[in-house]
């Protein structure tokens, strides 16, 4: 079941509005309204989309970020894509394709610690979480 699907302007304000809307929609579903789950989703959405604004789209408000969230019990899937070059996982680290020297650890590592399974393909990241 599609919970949310939208393309937003690449700005921190748009990210904030998107996250608020997603949380409101999730609160309407009994199986998605758990406070702990809402915290996790809020955290990962803000982390990923703020990174899209800053690193992927380089603060260009003419670029966009796509956010799709689906729920097929017991799996919650979050997909975020931007117009940046993306990054790859290399020897346990995430390396930005636009800067070979920059290794990303903090945000994505925290997301893994929240039990999300991360899949990446260029500038699209998919998270899967078993909420059973």
Structure description:
The chain is α+β, with helices and mostly antiparallel strands. It has a single domain (2-130), classed as Histidine kinase-like ATPase, C-terminal domain (Heat Shock Protein 90, 2-Layer Sandwich), CATH 3.30.565. Helix content is 35%, strand content 35%. The chain contains three helices and eight strands; from the N terminus they run E-H-H-E-E-E-E-E-H-E-E. It has helices at residues 12-27, 35-56, 106-113; strands spanning 2-9, 64-72, 75-81, 87-90, 93-96, 103-104, 117-121, 124-130. It has a five-stranded antiparallel sheet, covered by helices on one side. Strand 7 (117-121) and strand 8 form a beta hairpin. The radius of gyration is 14 Å and the shape is globular.
């Amino acid at each position: 079941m599609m919970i949310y699907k939208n393309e937003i302007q690449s700005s921190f304000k748009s990210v904030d509005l998107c996250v608020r809307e997603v949380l409101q929609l999730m609160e309407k579903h009994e199986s998605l309204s758990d406070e702990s789950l809402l915290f996790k989703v809020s955290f990962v959405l803000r982390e990923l989309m703020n990174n899209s604004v800053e690193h992927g789209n380089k603060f260009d408000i003419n670029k966009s970020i796509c956010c799709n969230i689906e729920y097929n019990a017991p799996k919650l899937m979050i997909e975020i894509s931007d117009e940046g070059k993306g990054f790859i996982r290399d020897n346990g680290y995430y390396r930005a394709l636009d800067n070979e020297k920059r290794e990303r650890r903090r945000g994505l590592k925290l997301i893994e610690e929240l039990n999300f399974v991360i899949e990446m393909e260029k500038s699209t990241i998919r998270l899967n979480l078993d909420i059973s």
